[in-house]
DNA sequence: AATAATTAAATTGCATGCAATCTAATTTTA
DNA sequence: TAAAATTAGATTGCATGCAATTTAATTATT
């Protein structure tokens, strides 16, 4: 038989593994560069959210990063202990925790911009390919979002 | 001010973040379908390797899946406990462990083919897009391999 | 207003995932 | 061939990542 549907099915199936593997490799490749700042990849992307928009709730961080409180709560506590962020209850809604950058957390941004280019160099895609990959990945992510 | 550095650090400008996020989502989406077979995603892909080629070493499984012994050793022990695989020392080289499917492990293959189509349906890409994504992901993975 | 439903974050428990180190077996080399 | 180097797996320790549950605060309902 091997019709059109079968082909898509096979390909989609084959796509899951490289997605999983590449995601994992990204984290692994970042680690040595972040070590210098005593950060893990996940801690780094939490800070990226805050550098873009400070004073956000745990919920909002989670929805940007596809992470839940089970992951974020202990991770945020570690970032507090490292002195990069601070948390306080939202005055309007005491269920919410507002996360903010400390001065140290803000300063870190200036130093850490040296890191992404180093990883970029290892991702051997030209600009066009990178753009295509970016588009396709968000298509998958958005498609997932649809059916939940 | 919004200078060059700011742009670099924006989540939306990074190819790494969607790679990380999509990989994570893949695992998460698989989980509910694999639960029925008492398998996790990682255990499932280990079995996939074996379904394709039985009697392989831990090392070989790891190189296919980008996993090391620190991950595989306990995971393989769980699969043994579940009765899907078995391990024995390689007679030629006693450092090597040869992993093989049990009858139960082989049979599982026939049932589990129902799972990938369910995930495939959630990955909302057409054939051309899927093919492109596949190519780009392996380009990234192969590029990583180069510089190690 | 009192109760029910919902929501944000914390907690618990389990399964990775990986760096670093260790042990035993095999190869290389001096 | 004896010592050194390498290699395959196991172990340890730490950091996610997520489902499920709990707790506290807020909102919706009656």
Q: What descriptors fit this protein?
A:
homodimer; mainly alpha; Arc Repressor Mutant, subunit A; three-stranded antiparallel sheet; 7 helices
Largest inter-chain contact set: A-B, 60 and 53 residues
Contiguous low-pLDDT stretches of chain A (5 residues minimum) are: none
What CATH first level of the domain at 18-112 in chain A would be assigned?
Answer: Mainly Alpha
Average pLDDT of chain A works out at 93
Number of helices of chain A: 7
Largest sheet of chain A: 3 strands, antiparallel
Helix content of chain A: 55-70%
| Proportion of beta-strand residues of chain A | 5-15%
Rg of chain A:
19 Å
Write a brief structural summary.
Two copies of one chain form a homodimer. Chain A has 148 residues and is mainly alpha-helical. The first copy, chain A, has helices at 4-35, 41-52, 58-65, 69-81, 103-112, 115-122, 127-146; strands spanning 56-57, 85-89, 97-101.
